[in-house]
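Q: What does the assembly look like in three dimensions?
Context provided by user:
Components: two
Sequences:
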Amino acid sequence: MVRLADMVDIEREHILGKDCEPFDTQPWVEGPPLSQRRVALITSAGLHRTSDKAFSLVDLSYRVIPGNVVADDLTMTHSSVHFDRTGFREDVNLVFPIDRLRELEAAGMIGSVADFHYSLMGAGWLPHQIEPTMHELARLLREDEVDAVCLVPV
Amino acid sequence: MGAASHYLEAEGIPTTGISLIREHTQQMQLPRFLWVPFELGRPFGAPNEPDFQRRVLSKALDLLESNDGPVVLEDFPEDAPESSDEHPATWACPIAFHPAPEERPELVTATLDEMKRLAPWHEIYLERRGSAAMSASGLTRERIVYLLGELADGAVSPQVETEEPMHEWLRLGCDDLRTWYLEAAQGQPGRGSASELRDWFWRDTAAARLIGSAATTLLAHPNQVVTLLAGRALVPREYFPLLMPTADASQ
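A: Here is the predicted structure of the complete assembly.
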């Protein structure tokens, strides 16, 4: 609901004070042309199907979002005083651009949309704590032959 | 999402991503990110703006063909449609509420009265959207109001019809209440920006006063998770002077 640049000092300083140290290595992987890539989305908006388990305040698990998901079947159990759910409720593509990705596939800009996408709870953990979760997601993404992931914060 | 990109690249999977906080992304030295000058919670700028959203996504995906690794951080050149200068900050809720009372018992009554007055507009909002109301906490909004009243009065563990621990139903319940108010406001004629609606909720409603009152009492709660939640995640720090005047916003 508010841009970082527009926040009052105390709020902005709190956010900027979070632990964001660089890693010891800087891995970088290249791939085929974008028009041949299979793309998956990973959001940290705490999205999940309404039938799925809600995210907890501190939660390192993930939820699977099928590529053919219907927007009304998604809910958000991330909570923050820095944003609200109304934008997501109006249009899921605001935080999870699945329709836009399908359009780019139809236009030939990307090769294909992955069968499965994933969601995390983007708060309450330090950067290094998400490593085991990402190892598991990497295995699932490889099984789906994904060779491009678009990471979307909230 | 910075750490996620690092670990996926280390596993051999190419990534790109959206950055909402440029300072964090720059500091972490990550593979490919597109910084966007949008509000938190809105990584693709604005709802129901498919052309704009597609431009943002295309720009982020284009970074996958960059050869300038291992660290690429580009800036998206456009502001989100809603935050452009063409929409001056002039919105005010057409429904004039009574000034929120200071006393806790009256806050519950005042909040329920606000909700009665906003309910028709929330129905209009849902009809326009063609969808149903959502409760992430599993509690009705009236129940949330009464629970907040109990907590403001010092209840330590009120009886709740959910198996979730208190810190979970409390955070989701407060979010449910705020979401309902903001949706009702969007059902009314005229349309405020996201930041105008945010300021209206926290500054002008009894519901926000009630959340602030409960959060203030919960700062002394025996459960440390609840205490942390109350001090950091129920009320934005900039509204502490108004809603939680005795709390320390620097914590």
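Follow-up: The longest strand of chain A covers residues 38-43.
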